[in-house]
Write a structure and sequence with these properties.
The protein has about 120 residues and is of the alpha+beta class. About 15% of the residues lie in helices and about 25% in strands. The chain is built from 2 helices and 5 strands, in the order βαββββα. The longest helix has 10 residues, at about 25-35.
Length: about 120
């Protein structure tokens, strides 16, 4: 997703809202202590504030953490609701849809079908 770096193995959405006073150190500690994930994995961690007007993305890049933020001027992000897990794993496309304002919880693709034979 980010130019000039290898793709992320996993993209995690933190389902609970996060205090946006947290910066890189606070969010990396949150990933390890609260989400019970390794912040040094080749993963992207996405956080949302309670008003759903800001997103922060955190990842480890070779020799340090990097973070970017998107702040909406007028609208709100359609953050997934009613999840019992601390994180939700999404694809690159799903993250882009979320950033574009789509409600990813209502987007249902066709079910995958697996067969052993055509007979």
């Amino acid at each position: 997703m980010l130019t000039g770096r290898r793709p992320f193995d996993t993209i995690y959405l933190c389902t609970e809202f996060v205090d946006f006073r947290k910066q890189i150190s606070g969010l990396s500690i949150y990933v390890e202590a609260v989400l019970d994930l390794n912040p040094f994995d080749p993963s992207l961690f996405i956080f949302c504030n309670k008003r759903r007007s800001h997103l922060k993305a955190l990842y480890y890049d070779k020799n340090g953490f990097a973070m970017w933020q998107k702040a909406l001027v007028k609208d709100k992000f359609k953050w997934p609701k009613h999840h019992t897990e601390a994180t939700l794993t999404v694809s690159d496309d799903t993250l882009l849809w979320l950033l574009d304002g789509l409600d990813i919880s209502k987007m249902k693709p066709h079910a995958s079908l697996h067969f052993e034979s055509v007979f």
